[in-house]
Amino acid sequence: MILSLHSINPEKRKLQQISDQLSQGKIYIFPTDTVYALLADSQSKLGVEKLYELKNISKNQPLSLICPSISIASNYIEHLSNDAFRLMKKITPGPFTFITSANKHLPRVSFSNQKENKSEFEFRMQFIYKS
Asked: Which domains does the chain have, with CATH numbers?
């Protein structure tokens, strides 16, 4: 199934449909600044397992956490200095990936298999909506 969303004014019905399907373990593909990304609900064990299978990678490999803003991503970061936060805010949005230590708020369903408490955070400010 292909769903198209208006980037500025997406239909709430379609957003709810996507949200419901993601929570059921479905996978979506969507464009980012640089590539197309596979999207799963980070709280869905089934969705996360499908991601690992589709990407054909070990469960010890980190997944990217795509966030709508640095402010939201900072909820999952162990420590982020004010200077680092200001710099990241200044250079985003854009095709940047920041690798940082995760805190206890990171969805364990998605990241519990990692040996180190390191996770890759990818900050994007597109196609991320809260339904």
From this structure: 12-123 (3.90.870.10)
* pLDDT (mean) for 111-125: 51
Question: If DSSP codes are grouped into helix, strand and coil, which group holds residue 97?
Answer: strand
Q: Angle 67-51-102 (CA atoms, 0-180°, nearest 5)?
A: 45
pTM: 0.73
The count of other CB atoms within 10 Å of the CB of residue 58 is 8
- Determine the Cα angle at 123 with ends 110 and 12, to 5°: 80
**CB under 8 A, 24+ apart: contacts of 59-62:** 59/113, 60/113, 60/114, 60/115, 62/111, 62/114, 62/118, 62/119, 62/120
Tell me the average pLDDT across 79-86.
Answer: 86
Counted residue by residue, the chain has a size of 131
